[in-house]
Amino acid sequence: MSENTQKATIWLTQEAFDKLKHELEHLAGPGRAEVTQRIAAARDEGDLKENGGYHAAREEQGQQEARIRQLEDMLRRAEVGEAPANTDEVAPGTQVTIAFDGDESDTDTFLLGSRELLGLDDAVDDTNVYSPQSPLGVAILGKSTGDSVTYEAPNGKPINVTIVKVEPFKG
């Protein structure tokens, strides 16, 4: 797999893929029709300059079309799989706990993958997510509990981390 293809990959579980596909089907079908009807109804009310309903419906249409394009792109780049059952090493779909500079009191726990792996459930919005293509993700991918790695932060500073725990993500 080329580096560009790897960077473009979005890791999804089958469940997350299905939810996103269902959302796309709704927005591109009935959702589009509903917004178009609201625009037509508001247009029939007359003067468009001062028609708040018309402008709100047009704004909603723009946001909906942007979401449709985003979903189409994500689904096109998606690689579907299940969260790894074997958590001997860090892989997309695992929940990882790292300690900064080996200090077990300074830790961070996150999902290695994409936010879309979380599905559409608002209950998991507070979950931190790091991409496998991020500097941290690249550094820890394939590593095991107890391994220490150094990666470069966006500001150029090297950061040392030790992998404390790797487990399957249970959203």
Automatic annotation (TrEMBL):
SUPFAM superfamilies for this protein: FKBP-like, GreA transcript cleavage protein, N-terminal domain
Pfam families: GreA_GreB, GreA_GreB_N
S-adenosyl-L-methionine recorded as keyword: no
Segments for region (Disordered): 44-65
UniProt keyword annotations, A-Z: DNA-binding, Elongation factor, Protein biosynthesis, Transcription, Transcription regulation
InterPro entries assigned to the protein according to its UniProt record, in alphabetical order: GreA/GreB_C_sf, TF_GreA/GreB_CS, Tscrpt_elong_fac_GreA, Tscrpt_elong_fac_GreA/B, Tscrpt_elong_fac_GreA/B_C, Tscrpt_elong_fac_GreA/B_fam, Tscrpt_elong_fac_GreA/B_N, Tscrpt_elong_fac_GreA/B_N_sf
UniProt keyword annotation of Membrane present: no
Annotated Transcription elongation factor GreA/GreB C-terminal domain residues: 86-167
An annotated Gene Ontology molecular function: translation elongation factor activity
Stretches assigned to the Transcription elongation factor GreA/GreB N-terminal domain: 10-80
Record HAMAP family: GreA_GreB
NCBIfam families assigned to the protein according to its UniProt record, in alphabetical order: greA, PRK00226.1-3
Function: Necessary for efficient RNA polymerase transcription elongation past template-encoded arresting sites. The arresting sites in DNA have the property of trapping a certain fraction of elongating RNA polymerases that pass through, resulting in locked ternary complexes. Cleavage of the nascent transcript by cleavage factors such as GreA or GreB allows the resumption of elongation from the new 3'terminus. GreA releases sequences of 2 to 3 nucleotides.
Similarity remark: Belongs to the GreA/GreB family.
Name the record gives this protein: Transcription elongation factor GreA
Organism: Microlunatus panaciterrae
Gene designation: greA
